[in-house]
Amino acid sequence: MTRTDSTTDETDIEAGEPSADADDTAAADDSDGRASEAVGTATPTLSLSGVTKRYGPTTALDDVSIAFEPGRFHGLIGPNGSGKTTLFALLAGLARPTSGRVDAETARVGYSFQEPRYYPDLTVWENLAVFRGFVDDPPPESWLDTLVEELRLGPAEHRRADELSGGFRKKLDLGLALVKRPQYLLLDEPLADVDDYSRRRIRSFLESYRAGDRTVVVSTHNVAAFADLFDRVTIIVDGEIRADGPPADDVVGQYRDALE
Ligand SMILES: Nc1ncnc2c1ncn2[C@@H]1O[C@H](COP(=O)(O)OP(=O)(O)OP(=O)(O)O)[C@@H](O)[C@H]1O
C-alpha cells in the first residue's frame, strides 16, 4: 500500500517514455521518503482523504474525499476541466496532492488516460508482451490472447502501433491498462473513438471484469454510454464532489441536475 500524504510538490503526470504502470512511481515515493508502506490493512483500498490539488493558481481538486470499493463499477462524471484526470493521476501515483492523503496500492492499479502510451514502432502484440514483462507477478500469457479477443484487437495484432487508427490506439491502450489484470482499473473515456461493435464487446467485458473484488472506475462526460452499468456514481464539478453514492434511476438527469 502506498500512502501519499500532503506535500507542496506540483508534480504533474509524467511525460516522455511510455511506462508500464504506476509501480515505478511508487518505488520513487519510497526512495525519497514521501510515501510509506502501510501495514495491517485487511482490505486493499483506493481512496483520497481531504485532498486538494493545485496547479499554480488553479485548484483542480478542492478537499476531495472518496473511496473506491472492491467489486464496483464506479462512474466518475464531470464536465471538461472538473478534475477527473487529476483525480486519476493521484490514484495512479503519477501526481502528488498539494494537501490531504492518497491511499493507493499502485501495483494493483491499471489505468488508461486520454493520452495513449505505447511503443510506436512495436506491434500491438509486442506492446502487450513488453508491458507484461514489466509486471512483477504477471497473469499467464493466455491473458494477452483474451485481451486481444475481448477488445477486438485481432485485426491489428501485428500492425505497428504508430500505424493504427484512433480507435485501435484506444483499444491498445485499454489492453495495456489491463495487462497486469489489475484489481483497480481506471479508465478515462474508454469508448472514445471506438466503433459501435467494439463498444458493445468492451462494455460487456468491463462488466464481467468487475466480478469478484475487481473495481472498474470509468471517468466520462458521456454518462449515457455507461449509465446502466454504474453501481456507484461520483459527480465532480469544478474540483468539488457534488454527489457520491448509488446512481439515481435516471443518471443522466441526476448529472444534469448537478450541473445546474
Ligand atoms: N498540468 C497542469 N497545469 C496547469 N493546470 C492544469 C494541469 N492539469 C490540469 N490543470 C487544470 O486543472 C483543472 C482540472 O483539469 P483535469 O484535466 O483534471 O479535468 P478533467 O475533468 O479531466 O477535464 P476533461 O474532461 O476536459 O479531460 C482544469 O482547470 C485544468 O486546466
Automatic annotation (TrEMBL):
Keywords from the UniProt entry: ATP-binding, Nucleotide-binding, Transport
Every ABC transporter domain range: 46-255
Coiled-coil segments on the chain, per record: none
GO molecular-function terms, A-Z: ATP binding
Naturally occurring in which organism (per UniProt): Halosolutus amylolyticus
The family this protein is said to belong to: Belongs to the ABC transporter superfamily.
SUPFAM superfamilies (alphabetical): P-loop containing nucleoside triphosphate hydrolases (SSF52540)
Top-rank taxon: Archaea
Acidic residues bias (residue ranges): 7-30
Lineage, highest ranks first: Archaea, Methanobacteriati, Methanobacteriota, Stenosarchaea group, Halobacteria
Listed name of the protein: ABC transporter ATP-binding protein
Region (Disordered): 1-41
InterPro entries per UniProt: AAA+_ATPase (IPR003593), ABC_transporter-like_ATP-bd (IPR003439), ABC_transporter_ATP-binding (IPR050763), P-loop_NTPase (IPR027417)
Pfam families in alphabetical order: ABC_tran
